[in-house]
Amino acid sequence: MTTIASRIKSVAFVGAATLLAALSVYGQDNLVERGQYLTYAGGCISCHTEDTDDAVPLAGGRAMETPFGTFYSPNITPDEETGIGGWSDDDFVNAFWEGVSPDGEHYFPSFPYTAYTGASREDLLAIKAYLMNLEPVANESPEHDLAWYMDTRLAADGWKALNFEPARFEPDPEKDEQWNRGAYLVRHLGHCGECHTPRSTTGVLVTEEEFAGSVFGDENIPNISSHWIDGIGRWSLSDIEYFLDIGMLPDGDFTGSSMVAVIEDNTSKLTRGDRLAIAAYLKSVTPAENAH
Amino acid sequence: MQHKIIAAVAALTATMSFTALAQTTPEDAHDYRVAVMTALRGHIGAASMIARGLVSNDGHLVGHAKGLDSAANELHRVFQEGSAVVESEALPAIWDDADGFAAAIAAMTEATAAFVEAAEGGDGQAIGAAFRNVGMSCRGCHDDYRVQN
């Protein structure tokens, strides 16, 4: 039995490898399409689009209010002057992996490079291909409006030196493919912890309370650890997958929270398989009591 | 036969629905509204399990669909002026943006009517799509008119 199972596995593996190889030579259109999918998975749209009805997607300018001041997201359409039109592949990848701009300035972690650092170069360049294929929009974002002690990029530099370690995602060989895919989506591309994990007074995610809920402005962000009462331990894989698809809670209620934008611009656009992978990963997260 | 009974119950529910009486306090109106919303939630939760294929249909889906449709058609009445109370998840936008709110409710009654039709038709894929639209209409309203929590 084991031999047959492992033989099936190896056939499947060779099949998958061939498919991947075929995909990689499939051409530019395919790359752009893949990039669009990953742009959804990366949750880029909700932050890089202004919060108005007629806002151009990804042209930046959205205000993000934090205890440290108001950050304005930049334009990531391929405009040469105000967007990312002049960026090289390495510029783009370095922004995500190292949190530095093409000019060598350190980003504030309002750009969640702390999560994106785990993303693969291949995925990031697909995202870049998609963004570079968009219509360039000239839109200069307002300067960040920050507290005095933050009002210099030196603050970003210092914060990074203390709190940031660049590292790619490494699949856990003890876990299956679905779990690893979910871990990659939740912890890195999807950067779920940016809202769902509490922060210290200096804005650092408290890893001991990962996914134990947080507060953002006047909104309570729920605990999504597998705690039975406080978290989503009671939710089935189907419950989580369905929530990420249409926003329904297992009791039939519908979310009206800021998660609606995440569902609309990210999770509902993913394949059912990826939503189930997210669910499988979340079910494995250490149960934590509510942080708030 | 079963359908006729459900239709009769739905019709009865509709005729018995809320009209503010002299003795109806804002709290009563609020509590009634919460009860109607809870009924909606119950039908949605049950219908979703059938739509997702987690439990078998056995003809119950039509009942849930009609219950949803009946409650959805009552929504414009349960959010009457004067039913806003302090401890409520209803946002002032419901009354400040009456046209937008009416449009959101109209989107829901349209979706629930289509869901009844799909449930009666019995095609799994059509049921899934119609249920999804009901869900979108719930979310569309909660996004703008309910306290975020």
Looking at how many chains there are and whether they match, the oligomeric state comes to heterodimer
The secondary-structure class of chain B comes to mainly alpha
Order of helices and strands of chain B: HHHHHHH
Stretches of chain B where pLDDT is under 50 for at least 5 consecutive residues are 4-17
* Proportion in β-strands of chain A: 5-15%
Shape of chain B: elongated
Poorly predicted residue ranges of chain A: none
Share of helical residues of chain A: 40-55%
Tell me the radius of gyration of chain A. 20 Å
Overall tally of structural domains of chain A = 2
Which class best fits the helix and strand makeup of chain A? mainly alpha
The largest sheet of chain A has its strands arranged as 1-2-3
In angstroms, what is the radius of gyration of chain B? 16 Å
Using the coordinates above, name the CATH class of chain B: Mainly Alpha
Number of strands of chain B: 0
Helix-strand topology string of chain A: HHHEEHHHEHHHEEHHH
How would you characterize the overall build of this protein?
- The complex is a heterodimer of chains A (292) and B (149).
- Chain A has two domains: 28-163, no CATH class; 177-283, Cytochrome Bc1 Complex, Chain D, domain 2 (Orthogonal Bundle), CATH 1.10.760.
- Helix content of chain A is 43%, strand content 5%.
- Chain A has twelve helices and five strands.
- In chain A, strand 1 (63-66) and strand 2 (69-72) form a beta hairpin.
- Chain A is globular and about 50 Å long.
- Chain B has seven helices and no strands.
- In chain B, 72% of the residues lie in helices and 0% in strands.
- Chain B is mostly helical.
- Residues 4-17 of chain B have low confidence and may be disordered.
- Chain A binds chain B through residues 219-220, 238, 242, 246-248, 250-258, 260, 263, and chain B through 40-46, 48, 52, 54, 132, 135-136, 138-139, 141-149.
